[in-house]
Design goal:
Blueprint: E1 2-8, H1 14-27, E2 32-38, H2 49-64, E3 72-82, H3 85-97, E4 102-107, H4 115-120, E5 123-126, H5 134-152
Parallel strand pairs: 1-2, 1-4, 3-4, 3-5
Helix pairs in contact: 1-5, 3-5
Length: about 160
C-alpha cells in the first residue's frame, strides 16, 4: 500500500522532522510512505473573508495537483468525523481488502482546506476539538497511521 500525507507549508522544527522520520522508518515494513509539502500562500495577518477564500483556493489548487484520481483521500477537518485508533485501523484494513492501493491524508493550512479539496475527499476526519499546530499534526497523524498497522497485525504496541 502507498500512504501519502499532503501538507500545506514547510516543516521547520527538527524534533518534528526526527519524529516523522522514525515513524516513516517503522512504516516502511508495511507501506510506502511519503510526506509532500505544498507551499503555503503568503498573506497578511488580518484577512477579509474574500482574501481568506483566495488563500484557501490557491493552497487547494496545490493540494489537488498532487492527488491522482484513484487515490482514497482523507481530509483532516475540524468538522470531520472523529475516529478511534481502532476505527482508523479497521478502515485502512478494509480499504486494503477492497484493493485500494493508494491512501492520501491531507492537512490544510492555518485557514483550513478549500471546499474543492473537501469535495474531493472520500472522508473528512477529525482528531478532536483540540486546536493543534499544523506542523505537530503531521507527527500525530504519522504515528496514528503506524499505530493502525500495529493494531491490524495484533502488535502489543497499541495498549
Amino acid at each position: 500500500m502507498n500512504i501519502k500525507i499532503i501538507a500545506v507549508g514547510k516543516l521547520k522544527e527538527k524534533f518534528l522532522k526526527d519524529g516523522i522520520a522514525e515513524y516513516q522508518k517503522r512504516l516502511s515494513k508495511f507501506a510506502k510512505f511519503e510526506l509532500i509539502e505544498v507551499p503555503d500562500e503568503k498573506a497578511p495577518e488580518q484577512l477579509s473573508e474574500n482574501q481568506m477564500a483566495q488563500v484557501m483556493e490557491k493552497e487547494g489548487e496545490r493540494i489537488l495537483s498532487r492527488i491522482k484520481p484513484k487515490e482514497y483521500v482523507f481530509v483532516l477537518a475540524i468538522k470531520g468525523q472523529e475516529r478511534s485508533s481502532e476505527e482508523l485501523a479497521a478502515e485502512i484494513d478494509h480499504l486494503a481488502t477492497k484493493g485500494v492501493a493508494d491512501i492520501t491524508f491531507i492537512i490544510g493550512g492555518s485557514l483550513g482546506t478549500a471546499p474543492e479539496v473537501n469535495s474531493r475527499a472520500n472522508a473528512l476526519i477529525s482528531f478532536g476539538r483540540f486546536t493543534l499546530p499544523h506542523q505537530l499534526m503531521r507527527l500525530v497523524l504519522t504515528e496514528q497511521i503506524y499505530r493502525a498497522y500495529m493494531i491490524n497485525i495484533g502488535s502489543p504496541y497499541h495498549k
